[in-house]
Amino acid sequence: MVARFFWGDMRTHIQECATFIYHLRALYPFILDIPPDFWYNRDMMSIMDIRDRTPTETLDYQQLMSLLRGYAKPRDRIGAFMDKGELIRVRRGLYVFGERYRRGPLRRETLANLIYGPSYVSLDFMLSWYGMIPERVEDVTCVTTGEKKRFTTPLGVFTYQPMTLRRYSPGIAWSDAYDSPCLIASPEKALVDKVWMDKRFSPTRLSDFDAYLFDDLRIDEALLATLDMSKICSIARIFGARKIAMLTRFLARVSQQRSVASANLTPT
């Protein structure tokens, strides 16, 4: 028994010395020409060690298990990180660093792509993001080729509306703001998606779009006129739906009316 206690104390001292040398070498790499992992004590792995080994703000379960492979019970260590708020589980198998350990802004659009896919951010969230509607939209609204889903997470609510593969792809844009790439809808696609998926709106004539776009959605008419009609027409052709064809004709009429009004205001 004495030997067991003696060995327990010695093991603790050896671990402390190894950890000290590891951090000392990180500050002064010329001291020893020995690989850092030789000195690193995995039993002492902290969230900062994981942060240093992770280039992004998100981690999946396999990444964490690989980093913690020296632990007898890596799941317990993940649980400890979460209890301290050092890691946040967004959904099963997907984690982000706690706020104090992030290198930059955490972009929810990027998370939306990772939570459920294939998907891109669209509909109300992107209409608000582009400033086309006045409301601030908190739920991240997405389009997917999969099933309809809703995820309530510590970082907000993420909803996913299904769309056929043929109508899914046209109008998707690649955004890399904040060095956090993600798939989002272009302004044109976000509007088409909204009109298409809003089952409450079933237009029978072009004038129906006046009340829907300007009174119901309260879309900024000036911004509406700046949409790229060639993109709208391209998306409409792929949709092959009467509702979107009517939207295209209405937008063309709005654009023409604003052009005429602008010409009339130009001094001669």
Write up this protein.
This protein has three domains: 1-44; 45-106, no CATH class; 108-263, no CATH class. It contains 13 helices and nine strands. The chain has helices at residues 2-27, 36-39, 47-52, 61-67, 74-83, 108-115, 123-129, 165-168, 187-197, 208-216, 221-224, 229-239, 242-265; strands at residues 58-60, 87-91, 94-97, 119-121, 140-144, 149-153, 156-162, 172-175, 182-185. Strands 4-5-7-6 form a four-stranded mixed sheet, sandwiched between helices. It starts with a helix and ends with a helix. 25% of the residues are buried.
Could you report the average pLDDT, rounded to the nearest whole number?
A: 85
Tell me roughly what share of residues is in helical segments.
40-55%
Structural class: alpha+beta
Main pleated-sheet profile: 4 strands, mixed
- Number of discrete helical segments: 13
User: Number of domains in the coordinates?
Assistant: 3
Summary tags:
268 residues; alpha+beta; three-stranded antiparallel beta sheet; 13 helices; 9 strands; elongated; disordered N terminus
How would the blueprint of this fold be written?
Layout: H1 2-27, H2 36-39, H3 47-52, E1 58-60, H4 61-67, H5 74-83, E2 87-91, E3 94-97, H6 108-115, E4 119-121, H7 123-129, E5 140-144, E6 149-153, E7 156-162, H8 165-168, E8 172-175, E9 182-185, H9 187-197, H10 208-216, H11 221-224, H12 229-239, H13 242-265
Parallel strand pairs: 5-7
Antiparallel strand pairs: 1-3, 2-3, 4-5, 6-7, 8-9
